[in-house]
Amino acid sequence: MAGNTSSPGATVVSRAMAVLGAFDERHRRLGLSELARRADLPLATTHRIVGELVAHGALARAGTGEYVVGRRIWSLGLLAPVQTGVREVASPFLNDLYAATLATVHLAVREGDQVLYLDRISGQRSVPVVSTVGSRLPLHSTGVGKVLLAHAPDTVQADVLARLHRITPYTITQPARLREQLQRVLADDYATTVEEMTLGACSVAVPVRRADREVVAALGIVVPSLKRDRSRLVAALQVAAHGIGRSLTGPSGRG
């Protein structure tokens, strides 16, 4: 919720941003009334702003009459440095990983206390997952999230550990147990999950580092089980992550 945007002093830009901010991972389609409520704006004001956003391609109207984020917002999002840098460099490595495993491959970064998925490659033989490019998921229940959480500042870790919630019967919600796992991630340099985000899906992920050893992203693979292929998958991920990190600081000047 935007909050306070219905006040007389709110600018046109702030109101438009409130409307756009009403959309999130769980609210991809919104009717006009719900948009007004979530943006904390009068219905008439919302109607006018939505009309202008649709005209400029920032929003689009679905066949159901609900509104969705338009292609123009997506196109602009691709210009963000985190997209054009890490995502562009990582793309060939993700394709190589997918070709070798036929499993869902993820590239993600931390945004606040959530995982932001920059890229995903999957196919018909891949395990179904809930992530999509541009989506945000909890740090504590995903492989890439655990990697990023393990390398996050203490304040971020404390905040996440204080608000653990269950997604599947296997999601870890005990702070002490998760903290132990995060310590293991730092020691082993990879993280795993076992049906903690989606039933029937296990994941393994590794950090992506620049030359200065700063962790800038996480690279992960989702498979039905890790019982047999964990070592092979970790090795493949680490080779790809090293290649991405080296490319980020190479002659191209990216990063």
From TrEMBL:
Do you know which SMART domains this protein is assigned to? Answer: HTH_ICLR
* Superkingdom of this protein's organism: Bacteria
BP GO annotations: negative regulation of DNA-templated transcription
- Per UniProt, residues of the IclR-ED domain are 72-250
According to the entry, every stretch annotated as the HTH iclR-type domain falls at: 10-71
Which keywords belong to this entry? DNA-binding, Transcription, Transcription regulation
GO MF: DNA binding; DNA-binding transcription factor activity
Q: Which InterPro entries match?
A: GAF-like_dom_sf (IPR029016), HTH_MetabolicPath_Reg (IPR050707), Tscrpt_reg_IclR_C (IPR014757), Tscrpt_reg_IclR_N (IPR005471), WH-like_DNA-bd_sf (IPR036388), WH_DNA-bd_sf (IPR036390)
- Kindly give the Gene3D superfamilies that the UniProt entry links to this protein: 3.30.450.40, Winged helix-like DNA-binding domain superfamily/Winged helix DNA-binding domain (1.10.10.10)
Annotated PANTHER family: HELIX-TURN-HELIX TRANSCRIPTIONAL REGULATOR, ICLR FAMILY (PTHR30136), HTH-TYPE TRANSCRIPTIONAL REPRESSOR ALLR (PTHR30136:SF24)
Q: What is this protein called?
A: IclR family transcriptional regulator
